[in-house]
Amino acid sequence: MFNIILFGPPGSGKGTQSEKLIAKYNFKHLSTGDLLRSEISRKTPLGLEAKKFMDKGQLVPDEVVIGMISSALDSNRDVVGFLFDGFPRTAQQADALDKLLELKKQTINAMIALDVTEEELVKRLKKRGETSGRSDDVNEQVIRTRIGEYHQKTAPVADHYKKANKAVFVKGEGSIDTIFDALSREIDKRLPK
Ligand code: B4P
Q: What pLDDT digit, counting tens, does each position of 153-162 carry?
């Protein structure tokens, strides 16, 4: 199995690029944002709890997200690899992911981070808010809270993968296709021959 993490701040294009990468490489896409939004739309107890945090631009508690990922790993055994999108977002989530993969004799092969300036992130998310119906995209204050959460809790997670020599940084500004080509080159370099 070949497992990658697509990393970056809110609005950096993780969801956008993941769609293209799974089509090309056939990875199983695990987006914690999508999983949480699906729980919200089905009005499950987990979704109702998560919504309180997401509407404010805060991270959902670790135990909720880790539990969701753990069951997703268990129910997808025969896949070529996982593409983790928006997970891990805290040091505790990164440790939990290592342990869950270790139990399956698996590991993370690469963490690829998208670099985008804060002004570009705010611009993209406000624009998406005009059409997405996502409550966390409409209000600039909530967007800035999400970016603040990223700097405080998520950005340090990159060090976890830097230490393991698994971190790669790619420019996340420019056309979607140019960024996709850059990501594909990084994956191709690391795929087993
Ligand atoms: P997510 O669903 O993960 O989404 P995101 O970070 O907002 O955006 P992403 O980076 O995927 O951006 P996208 O491609 O869509 O998180 C939402 C919330 O869920 C979090 O705030 C948190 O509350 C909760 N959550 C999720 N995972 C969690 C976890 N592990 N732990 C705790 N809480 C968690 O791109 C954004 C926009 O930019 C789109 O409109 C797109 O069209 C545009 N765009 C993309 N690439 C572009 C480009 N190259 N040029 C111009 N525009 C571009």
A: 999 999 999 9
